[in-house]
């Protein structure tokens, strides 16, 4: 099958279009004929080698963390899916590879595609929606009337997180550039801080939750927005010891992560704030709940561009500019 691979970790390196064997179908898997694949900053971070200690992939590696397509075969133990089903998924982190014609995914990580979305729209959803769900519903336990700041509101995670937070009944603030103010307001943001004109930490205060997807400076400034007892959840790091333990990292790596996060954990503790790092995980059950919200009109995809499969490398480069509004997708079929 055709696929886009990396042969080695290299910052800014090009993906190689090549031939790969169709993946093995295990007893609990579904084989998906890929119609579309979402493109994420995570793909470039994996290519650059940023996660090679946490996620020790075997090279060459097919990249891609979002998929929408049609089930072509099922494993011996699979009962909930059948050939012909239209599905979508974020494959388990050890089994990525959606920049290809086929992928085998554990059935527990798969959900039926929302009926009101195209394949390209569906492929834009899993990773970012699961990230938003696991941050706001699972980790923050966001409740009606609480105040949440979602950074980078026009980004892939931001556009879904704003809509999910509004569905949960929260008061939502977000940061974005001047050009994207109308977009984030249309998604439900109550307060919009134009980061080119204002410092969010001077404008906002008394918040219950901050979802951070930006750098260290933004992370630390976010402490000033939160009230005591608030939660600072970061999907861009630094990883904390809890994540290291959950990820099965060895003692040495746990100590490295403890050191990397010691500064922000110390500052958070002194203010009575809970800091945690979130690396989302595949979950078909949660994705099915997100499907229901999409079909009910509570959440809609926000698409920037769709690239043809042969231009996957170009699609990844475009995502790396940081200028995409919502998600970028490659159409495989």
TrEMBL record:
It comes from Rhizobium giardinii. It comes from the Bacteria. PROSITE patterns: QOR_ZETA_CRYSTAL (PS01162). GO terms for molecular function: oxidoreductase activity; zinc ion binding. InterPro entries: ADH-like_N (IPR013154), ER (IPR020843), GroES-like_sf (IPR011032), NAD(P)-bd_dom_sf (IPR036291), Quin_OxRdtase/zeta-crystal_CS (IPR002364), YIM1/Zinc_Alcohol_DH_Fams (IPR050700). The keyword Oxidoreductase applies. Belongs to the zinc-containing alcohol dehydrogenase family. Quinone oxidoreductase subfamily. Residues 12-330 form the Enoyl reductase (ER) domain. SMART domains: PKS_ER. This is NADPH:quinone reductase-like Zn-dependent oxidoreductase. Keywords: Oxidoreductase, Transit peptide.
